[in-house]
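Troubleshooting log. The previous run stalled partway through. Resubmitting the same two chains, unchanged.
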Amino acid sequence: MTRTKKLFIRYILPLITIILLLVLLGVALFRLSVIQREMHYNSNANMVWVVYYTHLESLRLTDALQKQALDPEAEVDLLFRYQMLLSRLNLLHDGPQARFLDEVGLLDELKTQAVTLHQVEYVLTAGSLNTAQLEHLQHILNEFSTFMLKASGRAMTAQWEELGAGVDMNRNAVLTILFIMVGILLCSLFVSWQLLVALKRSRENERVKQQQLELQKQLEHERKTSELYRSFGAMVSHQFRTPLAIIDASMQRLIRAGERMTSAQVIDRAVKVKAATDRLTYLIERILKADRLLEQVDIQLQQYSLVDVVKKAVAEHSFLTNKRQVDFSVESNTNLHAICDPILVSEIVGNLLSNADKYSPADKTISVYIYKHQQSVCCQIKDQGKGIAQSDLKHIFQRYFRADTVADVTGTGIGLYVVAELAELQGGQVTVSSEEHTGSIFTLCLPSAFN
Amino acid sequence: MSKMEHFGFQSFSLIVAMLLCCAAQALENFSPVAADAALISLDRPQGKVLLRVDGLITKTNTKGQAQFDWTMIQALPAATINTSTAVTDGIKRFDGVLLRDLFDLLGISDQAQQVEATALNDYLVEIPLADFYKYDVLLATHMDGVPLQPTDKGPLWIIYPRDKYRKLQDIRYDYRWVWQLKHLHIR
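Second attempt completed without errors. Output:
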């Protein structure tokens, strides 16, 4: 799918659909409001009724005249019936009714008829009627009755036409709205579908990202493991080779010399083999001990004076340092309390002291300095030994890592790893700075207060 | 028949109109009843009888009936409504008395529900009594200052305040505008 096509389907098409949806809704609302307004308008439905009553009054007057003709003595209120008819005529002349009659082309005839009917008023008010007058009146009323029949026919037709037109209009309007509703439904379905697709797409993206992250983590883990094995392999090949070579050489010598060897020589070889075996055992012990220590560690964090804790640790490890000058100093006038576990601090300090002892000449002083640095209290252990190469510094806390410069010294590369782990467990850290042939400085920093 | 069809066709529109009118009706206020109307004595009519009232009323001046002539009607508190009508053009001024005042004068029974109004041509329409208390319904004697004539819509015409309430601008109220009124039966 090209970029433009993608853009069109994902953004422009839904946008157009939403605009269409809004337009359709607007049109539907407008049509509905028109219908609503039309419903308020009461069509002038009483025209049929008005014509009917006018016709009725003319017939009642005719009826009264007939009664009078049959029996001149009969109690007939001709004038009243005439007035009723006139009132209906007047009603027909009023605005809405006159307009309707004008529309159906009967207004002029109505006016002529009305003039004729008004002209006979004097006959009715005069009192008794003669036969000629009666016949004249009946003739006029017959004419009017014919006119009224015509008018009622027109009124009925007009009314029904209007009704039909109204029904048509409403039906059309409702039909239009139905179509619009179908359009709205389709637009809504499309927009909903687009939303679902977008949601699915975003979830898919999220999943892919998560997967990539997971893969990266796995890769990192694999890389670390492989590095660990490499370091382990390197350490083992270095550390185990020498004792094994000693054992091998001694044994070969025993085999070759055989009975020619004196018992003193045999004992000398056996002591050498024993020492090499001890060294191997020591290495294996160290490797296993480190894992046990980290697995079983039980931290009891409290506030202690780091000065006291370190002093005690130095004293505990005096077997390492009794032949050596250890210079102990603290920053004056400062609160040097830290949050720590004394047992773990003792382990760390012992390890660092042991390293300083191992890698510096016996006549050089080791100095321990305790001071405050920002939110931490730190213990610095400085030796004047062979130092560490810059290229090795960044690997120094890795498990099984051993610097090339110390390949001749027995060690597993575990000590500093354990030191760093234990410092981290207490919320602190161990850093190192070193210069070759000058010495190394290891610094343990611990938080001065609980967070 | 055409009328019936018309009503059937309009039924939906009527329902909508009724719903719309609910809000308007809630806002409608009731005018205070003229209390002094009941104190006017009901004498026998001296002139030509224009209106006869009977049914559930407590005051009468002839046998079972209250009859009114022009003077008696004019003696009631005057009222005016300016409104358009369904059968004339433009706004007309109607003078007369409130039918509510007339009923108060006659002491209508609590059981009364409907008023049967009859015109000179014996046209008869039933009107709910509540109309007269809900709206200022006029018994008009004059239109635009001229007395209503029997040859027109007189002498008496029931006028609703059509322009004041949207609800009254409806065919279902238009038929209650009885003109040439001659008789009211309360039941």
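Takeaways: Helices of chain B lie at 2-27, 70-75, 99-106, 130-134, 171-174. The two ends of chain B are 29 Å apart (CA to CA).
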